[in-house]
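1st attempt posting a full record on here, be nice pls
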Amino acid sequence: MDYAKIASQVIENVGGKANIKSVQHCATRLRLQLRNNDLRNEDAVSDIEGVKGVFLTQSQFQIIFGSGLVNLVCDEVQKQLGMSTAAPAEDDEKEEKKGNPLQRLVKLLSDIFVPIIPAIVAGGLLMGLNNILTAAMFDGKSVIDLYPQWKGLATAINMFASAPFTFLPVLIGFSATKKFGGNPYLGAAMGMIMVHPDLLSAYSIGIAKAPVWNIFGFKIAAIGYQGTVLPVLAVAFILATIEKKLHKVTPTWLDNLTTPLISIMVTSFLTFIFVGPVLREAGNLLADGITWVYNTLGFIGGGLFGLVYAPICLTGMHHSFIAIETQLIAAKATTGGSFIFTTASMNNVAQGAAVIAVLFLTKNEKMKSICSASGVSALLGITEPGMFGVTLKLKYPFYAAIIGSAVGNAYCAATKVLAQALGAAGLPGFLSMLPKDYLNFAIGLILSMAVSAVLTVVFWKKFNIEGEETVKKEEVEKVKKEELKEEPKEEPVKVQGPQDLYSPMKGEVLSVEKSNDPAFASKAMGDGVAINPTEGIVYAPADGTISLVFPTKHAMGITLNSGVELLIHAGIDTVKMEGEGFTTFVSTGDQVKKGDKLLEFDMDLVKEKGYQTQTMFLVADAKEKEIEVKPAVNADNETKIMVLK
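the predicted structure (as tokens):
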């Protein structure tokens, strides 16, 4: 795979180097801040090797490559642009103000926690290995009971696993302070202060007596903040705010000396006197409250959370769960663990099962290629390629997946399957569970995958979820072969020279590039016009022969006497109405004259069903003809709208 070529194609099709303000990447997606989003060509980007999907969220254009590949492409894009992925965009502060407050909060939490996820996941997986070694799985005995020589290994792994959680404030302090515009190393220093060994460990609250600092008669409890989240976020914000203000008012010759000193000292006292104790309690209440709701609602709560988890992922809000989840796991002695990880696992395997089902159902080779990689990726915990490239694109597999997720998670909630650590949410999720929960966790995964896969197959057959594009490209020939059973009629004399085509409907005629359907607007189906009709009657635009009538009656082909193939497609996505509301007045093989009535459809019913009435009138073999389009505001079947030359 030529990463340099892929990078240059990405740059070219998002408007060139001058249009790119910044480049970043997450686990699966290349994230681009563009100066003008209208200059991007999504169709061209989608066709680049390795691209599994594209979408625009808020002001950010995201290209899905999948884990591993995205790092290599991002590095190459960075190299060609001559910028660092870590460098902030020129207009970062303006960009931060875009979106509503909730969107900005979610993006803020995402930007803080996404960089530290690898460290947390590493600790979580190591914790899972420790669980396997120390859990009583064999007649009441653990692995280290049976093999005492492995005890040292288990002890070492336990220490390795606990480090990212014990020193979590250091990681969050660095990342959050950097995000808030302060010195990240000062943020890390504040994190170290909050978990200093001279403090009473947060895990020992209520067990041991906390030391007290007596400062001029004012007593401050010296308690640490191991495994906490909210206090560190607030402390990082306060630190960065103080530091930035001091930089503005401190003389340059004193700045490097006094600014770090004052920032750390003031923030530290605020932390231990007020901010830390208040937000530690708030974090505990939040974790306890969420756990109470989940435990109280039982399988109903689990099912509902499983149902909405994937839609939440689409908004990016799932990144905000990391803060809550970390708190739940850090306080697992009281919470029991995290149900969020369990829910994520059910969701991920459900998405993976839906994608694998599509792999076996689709006839589209590019879709098969996307499914094979993204399906496995989803089963292992990375769903973005599968969701944006397959299930969401085809819609009904997405519905099947969220239902499967709801069923599996309802079972896990009923059996109280809670994660003890973070890790890869999917099939590898066993490492994050207690061995006693393995069976129920496995049953939840199987239910999620089975329901998702079966419903995908059912929806596929019922709703033709291959999509309109497959019908447009592949079904034409099939319908021709099945319906064209009459004896061939005497061919009419072919017309020579320019040929006029008249509007097949009353309404506004636009160039097809302005179609509301991206597939038609791209001219992939041919060149022509889009019509916003004022009545649902379709007339013959010229003399010719009906070459096909779709079984769903929403579209038909006409072969002109000149041999040119035309396609009239009434409405957008109306194939899913399966002929309801459509009436045809011609059959395959009929010869028609300009103005003959071909088709009638109920426009009100089309709108009621949630579809659009916009009708496409295309020249199928457009590349072989020069087409002059004549847009019109109030066309009828006497209005000339195209000339073929």
